[in-house]
Structure formats: C-alpha cells, structure tokens
Amino acid sequence: MIVPRYSREIPQRMRLEAGKCENCGYLAFPPRLICPECGHKDFSNVALKPEGKILTYTIIHVSADTFSTQTPFPVAVIETVEGARLTAQVADCHPDELAIGKKVRLMTRLIQRESRGGILMYGYKAVLIR
Amino acid sequence: MRDVYIIGTGMTIFGEVWQSSLRDLYVEAALKAIGDAGVDHIDSMYVGTMSSGLFVGQEHIASLLSDYLGSGGIPSTRVESACASGGLSVRQAYFEIASGASDIVLAGGVEKMNDGGDVTYALATAADQEYEAFHGVTFPGLYAMIARAHMHQYGTTREMLAEIAVKNHENGADNPHAQFQMKITREAVLQSTMVADPLRLLDCSPVTDGAAAVILCSEEVARKSGHPLVKIRTSAQATGPIALHARKNPATIPAVATAAKKAYQAAGTTPEQLDLVEVHDCFTIAELVVLEELGLFARGKAGQAILDGQTRRSGKIPVNTSGGLKSKGHPVGATGVAQIIEIVEQLNHTAGKRQIEKARLGLAQNMGGSGGSCVIHILEGLS
C-alpha cells in the first residue's frame, strides 16, 4: 500500500470524520459525494462520537496472512450513538464477554503493518465499556 | 428481445486440479460445451473470473483464452462481479443473443485458486478494502456476522445451519462433478474446526479449481440443433452495498430480494411455481438467508423448514441438488455457470440419481461478496 492511499483515509481512521447529508441527515462514513438515501449532494463534515454498540460480531480464527499472528480476534459491526455504521476489531476482551447490544468506545490503535514497507497503519478499534 | 436457449454444457472436474492451469481448465470446459452443442463456430465468448490476477498473476485473460481456444480472433470479454462473475458471464451472452447481435455465444467461468496465492486475502478483496478488509475481517467472518445477527433476531440455531451442509453433501455424493462426493454427519459439522465463530470448516465452501461453460443461442439455432429445448425465461441482476455495515439489517441480503423480484416479474412466475433452485451457499448461512430473500420461505422460517427436510430432493422445494458450492466446490468465477448447468441437466432429465421428477422450471441464484451483487436466471424445459 502506498503512503497516499493510507494518508487520505486519516480523517476517518484517526478522527472518525463523516459526511452528514444537509437534506435528510444521513450519516455517510466514510463521506460520499451523493446521499444514497435522498440523492442530495451537500454534506457537512462531522466528527462521530467515539461511542456506540455492537450490532453483530464474530471471532476470526483463520485470517489473511497480514493478521495471522493475531488470531483469534473479534470483529464487530458497530453503530455509533449518532447512527453511523462501521466495522472494527474489538480489543482487550475475552470472546465470552461479547454480545449483541454491548456498548463500546472507539480508540486509536495499530491495525496492521504494511507488508513490504513496514509502515505502521493506525485506525480505530472498539473496547467494551465495562 | 429474442428468446434465448441453452444447447450445450461443459465442465471440468472440480477440486485441487494440480495438473491443469487456468487456461487448460477454461479451454477444456469450453471445448466440451461446444462439442455438446454440436456447433461449428461461436460468434463471441465471455469469461467470468473473480481474480485471475491475484490467484495466478494473469490479467487480460479474455484474449488469452480466446487464443488458446483457437477461436480465430472472435470478440472475447471478461466480466467480474466477485463470486457472481459466472452468472454475469451468462447474462452478457444472454443479452448478446437477445439483442440479435449474435446467434451462438459461449459463456464460461473459471477460477484457478490452488496456485500458491493468499486465498483468504484474495477473496477478501470482494469486501470493502478500506473499511472492512483493512480491519482484518475475512469472508467467513462477514457471513459469520450475518449468521450471528440472524440467530439473534430469529432464533436460528447451529443445528439448522449444520443440516444445510449435511443435505448438500448428500446431493453432492451423487454428483460425479463434485469436489467432495461424500456424505457428512451433523455431528461432524458441529465439531469441525472453528473458522469464524459461529461458522466452522464444514459450514464453508472449499477452495476449488475448475471451469464451466454453456452455449447460448437463438431459437432458430436451438430448433435446428435437435437438442432438448431449454429456454432462459429471464435474467435478472441487482446490486447492494458491498460493506455489510452499510446494510440496514445485517441479517439480510437485500440485493437478492431485489433481483428475485425483477426475475419473477419478468418471467411471470411465483416462487411456488419453481420445481428446484440452485442457490449460492458459499456458507451454510448464505443458503438459509437466500431462501428467505427469494420468497421461498418467510423471514425467520427457512431454518425450521430445512430441519423438516423441505429443501431435500424429496421435499417441497429441492435446493442445491448439485451438492451446492459446499459439496460440489466453489471455483468462484465458474460457480454461476455450473449452477446453470445443474438446472439444464435437471430440465433435460439427465441428472441421474439426483433427478427431480417432472422438473420443468428452475432458478439459479449467484451472488458476489457478502451480497453486494446478485444474478438470477430462471430456466424452463420445453421438451
């Protein structure tokens, strides 16, 4: 992965920046140029609150090579408190603690190392609010 | 639009085919289909493949395969829609005949998955690279999240999912094309290695090399050929968000329902009129959700119907008589074409032990990724 490809996602991966449709309020994460709900093209930039809940989850036991030293690891679909949706790993927990509906906080963590250049790529992971 | 018929089919063996390259596989299936149809030429050809680039490092394969088929420079086009590439290949050939532009077209699909590539990585490129795969989610992982949501919302159980694999292996045991021609038990599924909780190894379709091809033609060519008449009643396609998190309900696959609605309307049929269906069971949960999206069972009701045997060959609606992706194998680009071949064999009453009596109307449902694309064909046997 070349550096620009990673760096242009930084507003989303580090600051959870989303686009809010000025017409219908749809939250696009990542931002889009046209609203999939109403077709409107004007968006305001909003930072999502780093809090939400688990909509569904899995524990990955067989991964791509990049993540093979981390298995088993949980991944979840998360809905933020504003209603935006994203996919993230759930860190610092035992798989038995996970359940649909559990509240999580999104934190900045190391996600992966780019295989050849070894660039550290950061982003959001979820942790359970206990 | 003209009516379109299928007069020839051809398949390689499905499995770990170490002795054959990607080009060998495609050309073998294509030559079998051309020979079966008995045609002396084809006007053009299509190649469905998900990722020849990542699996074997070869792009530009439409031309490569046209050359190795000895086609004499006819138009050849590659189409890609992840695991729905095969179904989409047939759909492009369908339009070319229906429009009147060509009379005889080859629609094939191929995937050479066992050639040293990182298969889990390659398959995950059918998910959102920046917002799903970046975080380490795999394909089994995405379907596992669909399964977890479906279990939570509708009380679907592990036993219901296991029964799908058991039933598909029962069918595959009678299919000479299948990668795994053997029966398995429910206990074996429930005790197999965990891949992505709650999905285990025997919930997952295998990694497969293989190719499949069909010959599509106009009514005039079909009638002159002397073959039993199998007509494509309709070809339908729909898209949806490729990211699971962008879907309103993660227990659903809306692109399937959208394509099904279009297909039933265009063909003037209802789900109740179908005699059999081939569905895209890349994972057991996929078959269950697809049966609900196709309207064959109400949402949340497919699991119990499966336990009751309603989707067996003797049941109300036989599902995946070929063995499905689970037992027959899943060379991703070839799968959509191979599904159509099973329907053709059933409608021609040449399916041997798997034959469904009085099969006249069959549906093939092929999808890409976690459901970001779906292609449906409804076929009718007129003989």
Descriptive notes:
The complex is a heterodimer of chains A (130) and B (383). Chain A has helices at 3-7, 10-15; strands spanning 17-21, 27-28, 43-47, 51-60, 73-80, 85-91, 103-113, 120-128. With 130 residues, chain A is mainly β. In chain A, the strands form two sheets. Chain A has a five-stranded mixed barrel. In chain A, strands 2-1-3 form a three-stranded antiparallel beta sheet. Chain B has 383 residues and is an alpha/beta fold. Chain B has 14 helices and eleven strands. Chain B has helices spanning 22-37, 52-56, 61-68, 85-98, 119-124, 139-154, 158-172, 186-191, 219-225, 254-267, 284-293, 302-307, 324-328, 332-347, and strands at 4-11, 44-48, 76-79, 104-112, 194-197, 199-200, 209-218, 230-239, 276-278, 361-368, 373-381. In chain B, a hairpin with a 4-residue loop joins β10 (361-368) and β11. The longest helix of chain B is centred in the N-terminal third of the chain and has 16 residues, at 22-37. The mean pLDDT of chain B is 97. The chains are: A mainly beta (130), B alpha/beta (383). The interface between A and B is medium-sized, with 34 and 35 residues.
Strand order of the largest sheet of chain B: 3-2-4-7-1-8-11-10-9
Helix fraction of chain B?
Answer: 25-40%
Helix content of chain A: under 10%
The global form of chain B is globular
Oligomer: heterodimer
Q: Would you identify the regions of chain A where 5 or more consecutive residues have pLDDT less than 50?
A: none
> What fraction strand of chain A?
35-45%
Number of strands of chain B: 11
Largest interface: A-B, 34 and 35 residues
Radius of gyration of chain A: 16 Å
How are the strands ordered across the major sheet of chain A?
4-5-6-8-7
Structural class designation of chain A: mainly beta
Mean pLDDT of chain B: 97
Total DSSP helices of chain A = 2
SSE ordering of chain B: EHEHHEHEHHHHEEEHEHEHHHHEE
